[in-house]
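User: Please fill in residues for this 329-position structure.
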């Protein structure tokens, strides 16, 4: 495993991190989820990402139990706040001071830790003053319950506003967590340049496009049984945008390029996002331990300019680049 600095901070994170969205507490039984967590530890992953909203808080609990007994100082544990949790009452969502404070304390309890390394605003809250949100984060930092602050799927303008307040409050806003992969590049035009200027790194989710970039979805064929495309608990909705026949044909055409590079398609996809210097870590998920062992082999791989151009030539106009698609509800 290799490590990168998160933003302009002194915090090192594993180049590949382990996330449990759509799996722990939902799609995967706990014994299997814990086997995946152990596989991540075994291959040198130290960075673990979750959120209170995943499986309506169950994913945090599973991760907390899976990491129990590990040396806390040797891990970077990330979680998030914004989406509805619990009974989903009027204050069970958003980035108000009330919801942030209550959610943070509940997350710490579920994760079995006194602090999280990174606490992230899971989306931008248009209904709460940004100052209120950032002051609440600052108070958690000063209480020692949060070490660093991040955001997820914020626009370039929102990142700039948040960074300005973070400087005033003297708190470390260090990261953004967007979707980013070969097929989805909407952050490249605005979010990445702004993040570089403001001292934030990207911690990217869906580097293999919900599994589409593994090549397991074949054009004209039924979806594999047990795959995310057949998951009625949320996975099928998320992967649907990438299941266009033209997209699947282009992905299949990437296989010779992966073979030439000595990589599987999934490894090529993860390695691709890590070529961007503003990306600190790529989040992988897994429903089986062998997926962790497979995808982690992308760490440290360098893709030359000719290969990167060949990938662009194959994918062509199926790549989504519209910066306007980065937006909060």
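Assistant: Residues filled in for all 329 positions:
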């Amino acid at each position: 495993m290799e490590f990168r600095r998160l933003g302009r901070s002194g915090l090192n994170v594993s180049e590949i991190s382990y996330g449990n969205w759509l799996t722990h507490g939902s799609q995967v039984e706990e014994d299997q989820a814990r086997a995946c967590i152990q596989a991540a530890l075994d291959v040198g992953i130290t960075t673990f990402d979750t959120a209170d909203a995943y499986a309506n808080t169950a994913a945090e609990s599973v991760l907390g139990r899976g990491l129990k007994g590990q040396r806390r100082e040797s891990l970077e544990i990330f979680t998030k706040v914004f989406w509805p949790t619990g009974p989903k009452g009027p204050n069970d969502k958003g980035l108000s001071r009330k919801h942030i404070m209550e959610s943070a304390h509940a997350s710490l309890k579920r994760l079995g830790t006194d602090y999280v390394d990174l606490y992230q605003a899971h989306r931008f809250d248009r209904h709460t003053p940004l100052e209120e949100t950032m002051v609440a984060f600052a108070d958690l930092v000063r209480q020692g319950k949060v070490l660093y602050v991040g955001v997820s799927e914020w626009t370039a303008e929102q990142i700039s506003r948040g960074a300005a307040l973070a400087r005033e409050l003297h708190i470390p806003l260090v990261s953004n967590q967007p979707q980013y992969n070969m097929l989805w590049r909407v952050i490249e035009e605005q979010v990445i340049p702004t993040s570089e200027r403001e001292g934030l790194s990207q911690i990217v989710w869906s580097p293999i496009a919900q599994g589409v970039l593994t090549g397991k979805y074949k054009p004209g064929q039924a979806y594999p049984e047990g795959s995310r495309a057949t998951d009625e608990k949320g996975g099928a909705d998320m992967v649907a945008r990438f299941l266009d026949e033209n997209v699947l044909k282009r992905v299949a055409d990437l296989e010779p390029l992966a073979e030439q590079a000595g990589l599987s398609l999934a490894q090529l996809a993860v390695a691709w996002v890590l070529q961007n210097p503003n990306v600190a870590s790529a989040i992988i998920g897994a429903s089986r331990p062998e997926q962790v062992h497979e995808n982690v082999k992308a760490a440290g791989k360098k893709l030359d300019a000719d290969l990167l151009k060949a990938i662009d030539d194959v994918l062509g106009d199926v790549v989504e680049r519209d910066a306007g698609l980065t937006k909060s509800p």
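For context: The two ends are 36 Å apart (CA to CA).
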